[in-house]
């Protein structure tokens, strides 16, 4: 239950007569209604208010819930001395003490005087003084999606002379009814009020006569006061609960992602599975990779590339097991290779939108003739690792291991880097590596280009220092990653 849900529950209990006990000595709402009616007659007699058109009688099928015997169902307009809509003020740009309150000023948390609109002195002099706002007037926004129905209680610590514009209803009780109680009743019904608005979503509006007809569960006056006191006693605790709830929710959202990051970081540091002597060493594996490269160069299948610089001590970001080895991506992968296949053959075409982001390796594709996509696009094939190189796709982890491509070949967005191995390595290990937080953060720091168009340069990827475990350990690491990540994904789904 959210803090707002708890507030709504408290307000609902309050207007149903379940928040405080009823006391016989406080009389009945029927007696209170008689006093309200007498007060209205006196004000009409004094010319302070006009006689209002009678509101419809309350029918049995209108009553939404049972209330205590000492209470009465009334219409909002019957327990208010004033119920009116503001007018269109005449504004001036010259700051003064005459303020027109608009919907922007009437917020759920109270009055917001950050944005002020000033009225002319002439307009204010000709305005009915009874329509000047008074402390604890109830203000109800009447227009617009996300705004209509918002209810506030007027207070004015600045001493402004205030009226409302034409998009706010004002409800004011006499001395017999406790305004704060009426305010909380309307707050409890805010969702209903929003639904009752007419018109389109962004231009929905309320009619004053409809709002005046809303049913109000009316307790005796002293009980109204005790209800308000109890609400205001409880709300600070609800606010504390809301903060705690929000912190837990944020933690629940953050924890699965942190768990995913931790799994991958442990994996690439050699902390996810144990090392086994029988697996051999990465040095042995590296020599095999280099021998394979020499063979392919000799056969003309790949081109000889310029030797990459020796890895220096200050490039190493963390400690790795003794049987591992630091290498550069360019030492074990061909970066951004090209394919050479028949123009007529059908291949997988993958725009960026078809690569899933996050801690997965998933993609879909369209089938196109190679001749239509071989120029102007990135090339890849089964077994290649592709990764987005442009922000924010890179940070969103749009990367995947290419498998089951149409005829084993594909092309796609130019905003991809491709890693192709010709050796016996576990490609899944390196696919997870490029999703690890360390790799992402370092690449982000080394991006080039303008804001919104920053990319990971090819040289950064080629020269990137990557830990190489023995082959069998690579496989066991991948098995463990793919065992653990689904748990984190389940947690994310639960939070969502």
Short description:
The chain has about 500 residues and is α+β, with helices and mostly antiparallel strands. The protein is built from 14 helices and 22 strands. α1 (about 5-15) crosses α4 and α7 runs antiparallel to α14.
- Please state the structural category: alpha+beta
Global shape = elongated
Q: What is the fold named in CATH at topology level of the largest domain? A: Adenine-n6-DNA-methyltransferase TaqI, Chain A, domain 2
The CATH class of the largest domain, by name, is: Alpha Beta
**Strand composition percent:** 15-25%
Number of strands: 22
Uncertain runs = none
CATH superfamily of the largest domain: DNA methylase specificity domains
Written account of the structure:
By secondary structure, this protein is α+β, with helices and mostly antiparallel strands. The protein folds into two domains: 239 residues, DNA methylase specificity domains (Adenine-n6-DNA-methyltransferase TaqI, Chain A, domain 2, Alpha-Beta Complex); 227 residues, DNA methylase specificity domains (Adenine-n6-DNA-methyltransferase TaqI, Chain A, domain 2, Alpha-Beta Complex), CATH 3.90.220. It has 14 helices and 22 strands. The strands form eight sheets. It has a four-stranded antiparallel β-sheet, with helices on one face. Strand 5 and strand 6 form a beta hairpin. Helix 1 crosses helix 4, helix 1 runs antiparallel to helix 7 and helix 7 runs antiparallel to helix 14. It is elongated and about 110 Å long. The mean pLDDT is 90.
């Amino acid at each position: 239950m959210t803090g707002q849900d708890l507030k709504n529950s408290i307000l609902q209990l309050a207007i149903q007569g379940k928040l405080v006990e009823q006391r016989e000595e406080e009389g009945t709402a029927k007696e209170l209604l008689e006093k309200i009616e007498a007060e209205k007659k006196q004000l009409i007699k004094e010319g302070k208010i006009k006689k209002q058109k009678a509101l419809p009688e309350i029918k049995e099928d209108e009553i939404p819930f049972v209330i205590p015997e000492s209470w009465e169902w009334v219409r909002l307009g019957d327990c208010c001395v004033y119920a009116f809509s503001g007018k269109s003020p005449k504004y001036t740009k010259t700051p003064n003490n005459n303020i027109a309150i608009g919907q922007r000023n009437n917020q759920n948390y109270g009055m917001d005087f950050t944005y002020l609109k000033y009225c002319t002195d002439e307009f204010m002099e000709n305005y009915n003084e009874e329509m000047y706002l008074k402390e604890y007037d109830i203000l109800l926004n009447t227009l617009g999606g996300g705004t209509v129905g918002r209810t506030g209680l007027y207070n004015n610590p600045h001493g402004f002379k205030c009226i409302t514009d034409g998009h706010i209803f004002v409800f004011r009780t006499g001395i017999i009814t406790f305004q704060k109680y009426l305010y909380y009743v309307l707050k409890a019904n805010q969702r209903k009020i929003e639904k009752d608005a007419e018109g389109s979503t962004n231009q929905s509006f309320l009619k004053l006569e409809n709002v005046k007809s809303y049913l109000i569960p009316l307790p005796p006056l002293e009980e109204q006061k005790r209800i308000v006191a109890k609400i205001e006693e409880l709300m600070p605790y609800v606010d504390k609960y809301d903060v705690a709830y929000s912190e837990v929710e944020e933690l629940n959202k953050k924890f699965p992602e942190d768990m995913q990051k931790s799994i991958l970081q442990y994996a690439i540091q050699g902390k996810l599975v144990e090392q086994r002597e029988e697996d051999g060493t990465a040095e042995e594996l590296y020599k095999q990779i280099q021998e394979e490269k020499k063979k392919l160069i000799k056969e003309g299948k790949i081109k000889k590339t310029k030797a990459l610089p020796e890895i220096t001590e200050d490039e190493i970001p963390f400690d790795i097991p003794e049987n591992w080895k630091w290498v550069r991506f360019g030492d074990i992968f061909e970066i951004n290779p090209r394919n050479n296949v028949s123009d007529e053959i059908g291949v997988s075409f993958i725009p960026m939108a078809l690569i899933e982001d996050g801690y997965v390796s998933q993609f879909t594709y369209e089938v196109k003739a190679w001749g239509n996509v071989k120029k102007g696009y990135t090339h890849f094939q089964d077994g290649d690792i592709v990764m987005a190189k442009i922000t924010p796709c890179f940070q969103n982890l749009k990367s995947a291991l290419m498998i089951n491509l149409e005829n084993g070949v594909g092309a796609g967005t130019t905003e991809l880097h491709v890693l192709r191995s010709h050796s016996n390595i576990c490609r899944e290990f390196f696919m997870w590596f490029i999703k690890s937080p360390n790799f992402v953060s370092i690449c982000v720091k080394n991006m080039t280009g303008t804001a919104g168009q920053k990319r990971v340069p090819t040289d950064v990827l080629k020269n990137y220092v990557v830990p190489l475990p023995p082959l069998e350990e690579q496989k066991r690491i991948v098995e463990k990653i793919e065992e653990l990540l689904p748990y984190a994904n389940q947690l994310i789904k639960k939070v969502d």
